[in-house]
Design goal:
The protein is built from six helices and eight strands; from the N terminus they run βββαβαβαβαβαβα. By secondary structure, the protein is of the alpha/beta class. 50% of the residues are buried.
Length: 265
């Protein structure tokens, strides 16, 4: 399905106006799922750039809102989360003219954006915000200690120093709150259904799968998929890759199955 992309300002968000880019299939149907998607950037990048994952999701009928969540209040915790949760609350109440009342509302994100999405889902649980229908986490950065076995592969794709710098800036207030590093959260039950995607050649693989495992052990619905090495997966968050990106069909298939499962439930 062809995808239309437009820039807009979410001007009625509680924290103030937020710039966003909206990806929408040209032939989207009524009740199309709305995905509030936080792009990567290692907690360092501001602004809104191209988002291949958003394009892939929109190509199968989703309406994907990619906000500039770092610029309004800065990139130190908890400010990006405050922006993210304010946008979620706005979409839950008003939809910003997107979709309709039958549309599922999901949060999602890649890398640092996956951290924000996971934190929004935890905060939605804690604030009894039942409007959240699910979360889509693609290689989320959830472990500030960067101590997993797969993290040893970070140098090979040029990301270790960037992630270390990003975590240092994000946690510059000196606090490691469960919302800041979701893998530290001790209460995992009651979270919205989760789709988690990673790849065998992804340095964030182990912390992502560990987080999915804890969600599942706590009784939450979790769908996870590990792509094989060689799909160019690390390129979604800026990692270097020598192969052509072929991850798109897997993302489309897993997302479609996830949304169908939520709808049936």
């Amino acid at each position: 399905m062809p995808v239309e992309v437009k820039d807009m300002t979410l001007d009625k968000v509680a924290i103030g106006p937020v710039s966003a880019r909206v990806y929408q299939g040209a032939e989207f149907s009524k009740g199309a799922p709305i995905v509030l998607f936080f792009g990567g950037g290692a907690f360092l990048d501001k602004g809104v750039g191209d988002c291949p994952v958003a394009d892939a999701l929109a190509s199968i009928g989703a309406i994907v809102v990619v906000p500039d969540y770092m610029t309004p209040l800065g990139n130190a915790f908890p400010k990006p989360l405050e922006v993210g949760f304010s946008i979620f609350s706005y979409l839950a109440n008003k939809r910003a003219g997107l979709g309709d009342r039958k549309s599922l509302l999901l949060v999602g994100g890649e890398e640092a954006g996956g951290n924000i999405a996971a934190a929004v889902a935890l905060k939605a649980r804690d604030h009894f915000a039942r409007e959240l229908d699910g979360q889509v986490l693609l290689s989320p950065m959830v472990d500030a200690f960067m101590g997993s076995s797969s993290m040893r592969e970070a140098d090979a794709i040029g990301m270790r120093a960037r992630w270390a710098e990003g975590w240092s800036q994000y946690l510059s207030a000196g606090v490691c709150h469960p919302y800041a590093a979701p893998c530290l959260c001790s209460r995992m039950s009651g979270v919205a259904p989760t789709l988690l995607l990673t790849a065998n050649d992804d340095p964030l693989r182990d912390e992502a799968l560990g987080y999915a495992g804890r969600l599942a052990e706590a009784g939450n619905k979790v769908r996870q998929h590990v792509l094989p090495a060689g799909t160019g997966w690390p390129s979604i968050y800026g990692g270097t890759s020598d192969v052509e990106a072929t991850w798109q069909d897997s993302v489309r298939q897993e997302f479609a199955g996830f949304v169908a499962g939520i709808g049936q439930h």
